[in-house]
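[job 4471] stage=fold_predict status=RUNNING
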Amino acid sequence: MPQEIPQNNISKGDTPLPLWVIAILPFWIALVLIVTFFLISQDWNWIEAWLVMVTFDINMTVSFYLINKKNPRVIRNRAKLKKVGITEKTKRSAGSDKFIIPFLAIGFVGAIILPIFDHRFQISQINIFILEIIGLVVLNIGLVIMDIAMVENAFASKLLDINKDQKLIDTGLYGHVRHPLYSGVILIIFGFPFALGSWISLIPAAIAVLSILIRIKFEEEMLIKGMDGYEEYRTRVKYKIIPKIY
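[job 4471] inference complete, writing structure tokens
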């Protein structure tokens, strides 16, 4: 878990965002998901979509509040669009984002959007409610794992980058796998197609997960070259995303 920062040593990055930002978040998420799920599908009685929307909204709002309270720096780091710590050693590895991110984005968005069209046109419906509930649980477990990883690591950026003052995190989830945030994201990606009842949506989900696995290869290469102690950390924590397996 992150260490408490003395009050007289709090930088702007460690200052929590205003509470009004947290207050409007559930309404913003609900609006986006209502437009996405129900206006496109043209089915306001789509139970699976309501379950996903409500649980996702609650999960995101509560987690965002806790992250903002315990480790607000990670919110700002994940909002960054520009890399700031690239060196000659890490330039090649970090540059892999240029071709990986588009595939990851297409797969991730496809795993969310394709189920909507699948539901509307009845292409490849799962129609096994218990399987859809399992998908919903997996989706929310993935969100919780991702949130814990963000609380533990203030430098959990969306970009392949190493900040100037970045430190190696090897406790908590990071003591079990080297990339717990990706572990959570993968569960989220596979959770959406099952929770929304769409077999065909597993195709873009698989593309997104494959993109993440490729990205991990380049990220590890970057961290070995650019972060002190990472090579030794790899020998202690042998698994990337699944304890005892991978």
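[job 4471] summary: The mean pLDDT is 91.
[job 4471] exit 0
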